[in-house]
Amino acid sequence: MNAESLDGRLLFAIPKKGRLHEKCMELLAGADIQFRRHHRLDVCLVKNHPMALVFLPAADIPSFVGKGNVDLGITGHDVILEAKMEEHVTEVLQLNFGKCALQVQVPEAGSIKSVEDLAGKRVVTSFEVLAGEYFSKVDDRLQLAGESRTKIEYVSGSVEAACALGLADGIVDLVESGDTMRAAGLHAIATVLQSEAVLIKANSPKRTEHASLINLITSRIAGVVAAGRYVICEYNIPRESLAKATAVTPGRRAPTISPLEDENWLAVSAMVEKGRMAVVMDELVAIGAEDVLIFNLDNCRV
Ligand SMILES: Nc1ncnc2c1ncn2[C@@H]1O[C@H](COP(=O)(O)OP(=O)(O)OP(=O)(O)O)[C@@H](O)[C@H]1O
Ligand SMILES: O=P(O)(O)OC[C@H]1O[C@H](OP(=O)(O)OP(=O)(O)O)[C@H](O)[C@@H]1O
């Protein structure tokens, strides 16, 4: 592929590997962004839009978008702050995956119990900017100066091994399930920030002709994300219990209510947040609902 074939195309950056890659592939399919990625090629043309995908490390995406070389991107909120790009990009959508927390961790068995205990000692991390800012505030608060301030050291991966290897007294690393942390004999003593994957766009794009395509792609991706967040709940309810039942399933705008052949009963259909699904079903059954059905959404525009 040559540079000319990218002329006039919107550039959309996607994490090339790691935790966010697979979910991004699902989002692109759900948004009907069609492409064929040739083996080892990191740029590929989209067949059904004037767009090209660029596959990049998640950590590099904020600066490509922030500098306007790339128009749209998907990456973690954490790496946007680590790259100091929060004023150069707009987080257009939260994508409801890649959820994790950047936490200060220390050996479970050791004598360090708090951030104040750790201050002034050695901290190893892949997030040297965020860890540096965090401990700089702690050091200021404790009035630590010069050699007494916390020493932050960068490593690019396997951060959790640093304490066992004698390189660090504590680490700052991402935690999702906590399995990695526990397996390394560590526990969290503070949270620096919460993160999830986000769709970002350039605040100062090099090309301005793509605004309407950016809006179209954003709305398609928003539809796929919402489809993963909601289910459709349908049930039958005795007419006299309708008010109680619709208080449990108010829907996004309002529930759909249809008559049944039996005039004492009504059918209700409403969108429900996936995370509330089991509780909603419990409550509906307790109120007298029958035939409670849950349907997943493939896609939607809400
Ligand atoms: N355990 C996790 N759970 C959820 N999201 C995560 C997790 N680890 C990382 N992330 C998110 O994914 C982003 C990229 O992290 P990842 O470790 O996949 O990066 P990578 O260095 O590009 O890939 P790899 O680790 O394969 O080299 C992080 O900045 C964070 O936003
Ligand atoms: O709390 P958990 O669910 O165990 O997830 C946390 C781990 O996930 C990430 O690493 P990843 O597995 O992506 O590999 P990496 O160390 O190569 O970045 C992160 O750096 C932690 O090590």
TrEMBL record:
| Compartment list | Cytoplasm
Q: Which organism is it from?
A: Gloeophyllum trabeum (strain ATCC 11539 / FP-39264 / Madison 617)
| Chain ranges passing through the membrane | none
Provide the protein name.
ATP phosphoribosyltransferase
Biological process (GO) annotations held by this record are: L-histidine biosynthetic process
What does the sequence similarity comment in the record state about its family? Answer: Belongs to the ATP phosphoribosyltransferase family.
Give the main localization category.
cytoplasm
User: Where is it found, in Gene Ontology cellular component terms?
Assistant: cytoplasm
* Catalyzed chemical reaction(s): 1-(5-phospho-beta-D-ribosyl)-ATP + diphosphate = 5-phospho-alpha-D-ribose 1-diphosphate + ATP
Pathway-wise, it operates in: Amino-acid biosynthesis; L-histidine biosynthesis; L-histidine from 5-phospho-alpha-D-ribose 1-diphosphate: step 1/9
User: Which molecular-function annotations from GO does this UniProt entry contain?
Assistant: ATP binding; ATP phosphoribosyltransferase activity; magnesium ion binding
Q: Which UniProt keywords apply?
A: Amino-acid biosynthesis, ATP-binding, Cytoplasm, Glycosyltransferase, Histidine biosynthesis, Nucleotide-binding, Transferase
Q: What taxonomic lineage is listed for the species of origin?
A: Eukaryota, Fungi, Dikarya, Basidiomycota, Agaricomycotina
Against PROSITE patterns, the record matches this protein to:
ATP_P_PHORIBOSYLTR
What InterPro entries is this protein classified in? ATP-PRT_HisG_long, ATP_PRibTrfase_cat, ATP_PRibTrfase_CS, ATP_PRibTrfase_HisG, HisG_C, N-reg_PII-like_a/b, N-reg_PII/ATP_PRibTrfase_C
Key word Lyase present in the record? no
